[in-house]
């Protein structure tokens, strides 16, 4: 993996440009992003006590049924236009060289800029970050109690579902939350902007390290960058939705790269900082240990370096916990039982079916349904262990991608940002232009449609039912999606025809 890297830039075909004028795709994607910004004014997540709610424009867009429907349509159509623009940008690349990289980075900047100004879309987690920051600032322990301990928390916009739950975030992100609370003085819009800047740092790390990791695998770095950083799901979850997963993933990818190029101390430090944002990336540690052990390591050497990796990471996390005074409280917070599931998660729907069947016989069905969910997670654990134990050195990061994919697929709850964790890892190890990339296209389209039709902030007292608003969003988004798959003369080829372009087929 760290030896000579084969060329990943095929020679240009003839003397033509590498990219067939990407401006139209970039501009159309920017229009889509601006439409989403406009839609967020009416249906983005906004606390009722926000100063913005007093502005005449917001009053019309959020309290008038016509204004709300207009924003729903703008959001759904803009999101799907962004999907089309991403697909068209990839189609216009003749050779994945430096011009393609420039076009991709221009698209990321142009499409992400309007999202930086949007009211939070697709998630209200950022408001939970704000309240947790107030907790830390006021000396409360967020690992022992939920943010319901904060006075007037219900007016902040935070989801009541997690009000009684301790935070599952690591010590580094608690500091981020505290700093934002201190710098903003509790001002909501400034807090959102600051959290978006933190997310932008994670996006920047992904932009830097995705091409580097791709080169290590002999994969075209510019195509990997387009598949991941310009991906609409990546942008809406990390910028529009302000998820802390952006920083988590960026640090993890950076750590993965530095370990692969024989800088294991820096690599373990970065991955440990990633865990200190959100502990999901603890799954990286056994694979980091394998990279550190080296190509010819036997079982004795692997075991030694697994132990060294675990001890080094534990030391970093222990130091962070000691500095903020909360220790390893996040471990207890993560072990809090969670019974959430979703209909499109295979294990989630399986648990619901089992629960329904047992309930029909007068039993407590969810006792058995939850067992199914736990079995799914246990199966994911077994797969992760097997992937860490078996396989070639050259495919360590690919095995990590599959391991993380197993954890996502076998969870009862699958969110769109869980899928975003996977895309860079698969992109840097190779997504072929056959069923693999088609699967990605369908996943991006599906989760975009689901996101715009599920996460809408509709004020309960206006004359418009939330279900009606969701149906409007679903009709617009599904209609646009069907157009892309079956009617659009440009994009339908991506979904329905065999893709055989050798210039964009990565080497695995």
Quick structural gist:
The chain has helices at 23-43, 56-63, 65-91, 98-116, 125-137, 171-184, 188-216, 221-228, 232-240, 245-260, 264-275, 285-293, 299-324, 329-334, 346-360, 365-389, 396-409, 416-429, 435-454, 466-487, 492-496. The protein is an all-alpha fold.
Q: Strands, helices and their partners?
A:
Elements: H1 23-43, H2 56-63, H3 65-91, H4 98-116, H5 125-137, H6 171-184, H7 188-216, H8 221-228, H9 232-240, H10 245-260, H11 264-275, H12 285-293, H13 299-324, H14 329-334, H15 346-360, H16 365-389, H17 396-409, H18 416-429, H19 435-454, H20 466-487, H21 492-496
Helix pairs in contact: 1-3, 1-4, 2-3, 3-19, 3-20, 4-8, 4-9, 5-6, 6-7, 7-8, 7-10, 7-18, 8-18, 9-18, 10-11, 11-12, 11-13, 12-13, 15-16, 16-17, 17-18, 19-20
